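so i finally got all the pieces together for this one. its two components total, 515 residues if u count the protein bits. some of the lines might not be protein, just check the labels. i wanna see the whole assembly predicted at once instead of chain by chain like last time, that was a mess tbh
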Amino acid sequence: MDGYLYYPGCTLKTKASDYEESAMAVMEALDAPLVEMDDWYCCGAVQSLAADDIMHQIAPIRTLICAQEQGEREVVTLCDMCYNVLKRANLWMREHPDDLDTMNEFLDEDPDYEGNVEVYHLFEILRERKDDVKKRVKHKLDGLTVAPYYGCMLLRPSEVAIDDTENPSIMEGLLESIGADVLDNPKRTECCGSYHVVNRPDIVERRVEELVSRMGEMGADVIALSCPLCQYNLDSYQRSTGYDIPVLYLTELIALAFGLEAGLHKHRVDPGIMLKERGVLER
Amino acid sequence: MGEKEEQEMIEIYVMGKKYEVPKGLTIMTALEYAGYKFTRGCGCRGGFCGACPTVYRKKDDYKLRMDLACQTAVEDGMYLVQLPFVPAVREEYDLEEMDPSANDNILLEYYPAIARCVSCNTCTKSCPQELEVMDFVQAALRGDVQRCAELSFDCIQCGLCSMRCPADIKHYHLAQLARRIYGRYQQHKSDALTKRVEEVEKGAYDEELQKLVEMDEESLKERYEKRDITEG
């Protein structure tokens, strides 16, 4: 297959369509297009931690069966939640063959899952192609200070981490290759409050205040990340900090460096103002 | 009945009570043969209205099966019960007041329980119309109103999917909303239909209609038989 088999997840089709649009454009420009799976299912968004809760592993495994039946061994995700759930469910089934048997018995209308599909996050693919990214840059983002933010799902638990859990550098490397000024962000692996936004928004507010005000004090012009839920929380709950820092998907910044028009539609804090101020977008 | 021929009889259990009924009947007619009279849970008798969902299990089989009583033949040793009504919540909405384009996922807003889907596919297995029920719920989850509407087009609202769902999703109500939104806001309006409605409103067919109204039954029948259905 030319390019990569791509699992979008529901959020990429709705709230995070900026991320999909920019990631598609960037990968197309790198001659490694993302090709959406013929069939896929909602991953469930949270990994069930109960060892006997196989029910909540059905959704991710069903999607991995879809990849397997498309004759592919690799599937790439953009959303951190989807990445985390698919990767952990896959790992669980490999380490617990009895549970895989139970699963395959239950999914009697589908082919058995053989456990051979590998789950990747887009950043892992971009890391492999960092030189291509650098070559493709049209306008370096110099002058724009970017705070990389990883959150939890790309790094925890360590079995599924895409990088060093304590000291990750994958985003920093990519930001350097597009010429941005990278902020050494001490808050980059802290939690944004995640799903507490549903029933305990006060927790998210506290977390986001702590994160964004620190990044603001350190001089961040924009925050770069890849998790749609972190994006929502950081973007929507930073009002109390007094800062208005745009929270962008890393792929939106790469697209800007490539001179592509993609994404930047759905952010609460309008990125246009800052990007024009720093000369990234034309005034 | 009443024929001289020997009718082969089978045993069925209705709500646990044993009855002898002739082989080859549908569940619905078998129940009537056994003496039950339908005042609810029975409609078109042709598999279109979705009013007669039935739950049964076959002899020596542990699985509960679902179907329409008017479309399923009784089998010897069958245990069965009728579901005259499915008390699932249908959310209230005013189609005219909606703005689906201003919302990333309007279906999720009205039916948030779809986010609980675990992809178990139990809904699909329970559908007497053999629809891809799980797939249209999944389409709804990703905001694809059109796909949800298209995949659910043949839904007859029997409600069996929602009776089986471990996540308490109301598939058939959700899909009805999807079809309504699709029809009202997204589907391409037919130019030919608009033109025809204009013609009708201008009275282009009034004279022809009046002729039909004034015809007696016999000549109306004759006209119907001789109509040309190949044209247009």
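The mean pLDDT of chain A is 96.
Residues 4-122 of chain A form a domain with the Glutathione S-transferase Yfyf (Class Pi); Chain A, domain 2 fold (CATH 1.20.1050.140).
anyway lmk what u think
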